[in-house]
Specification:
The chain contains 2 helices and 32 strands. The chain is mainly beta. A hairpin with a 4-residue loop joins strand 25 and strand 26. The longest helix has 6 residues. The chain starts with 9 loop residues before the first strand and ends with a strand. One of its GO terms (molecular function) is protein phosphatase regulator activity. Pfam families: WD40. This is Serine/threonine-protein phosphatase 2A 55 kDa regulatory subunit B. One of its GO terms (cellular component) is protein phosphatase type 2A complex.
Length: 446
């Protein structure tokens, strides 16, 4: 990735802003971002239960530079607020995760989930409408059969392009706790959904039944010591999946071994350094995201302060550890008091598994080049978002004399956080969700 050598990897494309930051509400905060398998579509979900899909501009001879721009393609309400009357609990409409299915025909399919219910959506285009019905008039009202004296052949007439989103399946009533992950299997017939204590396996054709493949709920809930934080299927082997825990461990499971994967095949854990032991050790070691590399050889995990890369063949320690914001180690007490220490940051690979991206505070996001071991901090903000402007690396000053281009760790804004990011599957285009704004950055175009 040659642009990394310049530390100026991305040129800004105008942000697709849901609402301006001055008037956004809680419902407008973006809660997930996901490219489809080709990268032509980008879906976001928000706390209001809406899904917004952006489509990439087609390249034209006159406007080659517009190739990287994404415009709104479809917007629909995926989930509504519900109420569990048996438990007297409100179920939020917030979209926790979106996962695309590979495109098989002209339509697109995606899964979206809130805390309790997973839905399969079909997104399709319509640019023709049928006319000349026999049993209906032009307004769609049924005609009196006694008035029908001739037989007409319906014809298709051109119409303005309409994008329709329709729910094809609703997978409900299988989770007692909040769903934190969904992952589509490589067989494209099944997917799994994970909550705090259980992981369920679903068939796309069956909505009223799922198979429980992991259950870590103890008989006595007072003995509960850890919860499931994330889960994902292997990209190539349909029998293999991983899940992470709040104790900082990762378990690799093989569904061929037994129906209930209560015994893991591999167990990844890094021994704790006693010199770094503190009151916050258990909290900051909790893994907030786990991702297989595209090759399937590595696993990436994100905890509060670091991103780690694990080789599937080495369980005792990660092969790479990257410090995301180590300067916050001295601020853990105040981060605990304002609940920021419980923030769940995600992490993503680039298409070739050579670069890692994850978020931080102050609208900063970090990139780590695995080959050169270089890293860069960039900022997603409206102030430096002029079209085609090159993003400048940012540096955080921990102590001592602060340089002109540095920002002091004491002046970081912890209310501005990059929790959700996505990377185009084959190109250097990234999407970064900063509160209610979606920023799309593109590699330098000459």
């Amino acid at each position: 990735m040659k642009c990394f050598s310049r530390y100026l990897p991305y040129i800004f494309r105008p942000p697709n802003t849901i609402l301006s930051s001055s008037c956004h509400t809680e419902a407008d905060i973006i809660s997930t971002v996901e490219f489809n398998h080709t990268g032509e579509l980008l879906a976001t979900g928000d706390k209001g239960g809406r899904v917004v899909i952006f489509q990439r501009e087609q390249e034209s001879k006159n406007q080659v530079h517009r190739r990287g721009e994404y415009n709104v393609y479809s917007t629909f309400q995926s989930h509504e607020p519900e109420f569990d009357y048996l438990k007297s609990l409100e179920i939020e409409e917030k979209i926790n995760k979106i996962r695309w299915l590979p495109q098989q025909n002209a339509a697109y399919f995606l899964l979206s989930t809130n805390d309790k219910t997973v839905k399969l959506w079909k997104v399709s285009e319509r640019d023709k409408r049928p006319e000349g019905y026999n049993l209906k008039d032009e307004e769609g009202r049924l005609r009196d059969p006694a008035t029908i004296t001739t037989l007409r052949v319906p014809v298709l007439r051109p119409m303005d392009l309409m994008v329709e989103a329709t729910p094809r399946r609703v997978f409900a009533n299988a989770h007692t706790y909040h769903i934190n992950s969904i992952s589509v299997n490589s067989d494209y017939e099944t997917y799994m959904s994970a909550d705090d204590l259980r992981i369920n396996l679903w068939n796309f054709e069956i909505t009223n039944q799922s198979f429980n493949i992991v259950d870590i709920k103890p008989t006595n809930m007072e003995e509960l010591t850890e919860v499931i934080t994330a889960a994902e299927f292997h990209p190539h082997h349909c029998n293999t999946f991983v899940y992470s825990s709040s104790k900082g461990t990762i378990r690799l499971c093989d569904m061929r071994a037994s129906a209930l994967c209560d015994r893991h095949t591999k167990f990844f854990e890094e021994p704790e350094d006693p010199s770094n032991r503190s009151f916050f050790s258990e909290i900051i070691s909790s893994i907030s995201d786990v991702k297989f590399s595209h090759s399937g050889r590595y696993i990436m995990t994100r905890d509060y302060l670091t991103v780690k890369v694990w080789d599937l063949n080495m369980e005792n320690r990660p092969i790479e550890t990257y410090q995301v914001h180590d300067y916050l180690r001295s601020k853990l007490c105040s981060l605990y008091e304002n609940d920021c220490i419980f923030d769940k940051f995600e992490c993503v690979w680039n298409g070739s598994d050579s670069v890692i991206m994850t978020g931080s505070y102050n609208n900063f996001f970090r990139m780590f080049d695995r080959n050169t071991k270089r890293d860069v901090t960039l900022e997603a903000s409206r102030e430096n978002s002029k079209p085609r402007a090159i993003l400048k690396p940012r540096k955080v000053c921990v102590g001592g004399k602060r340089r002109k281009d540095e920002i002091s760790v004491d002046s970081l804004d912890f209310s501005k956080k990059i929790l959700h990011t996505a990377w185009h599957p084959s190109e250097n285009i990234i999407a970064v969700a900063a509160t209610n704004n979606l920023y799309i950055f593109q590699d330098k175009v000459n």
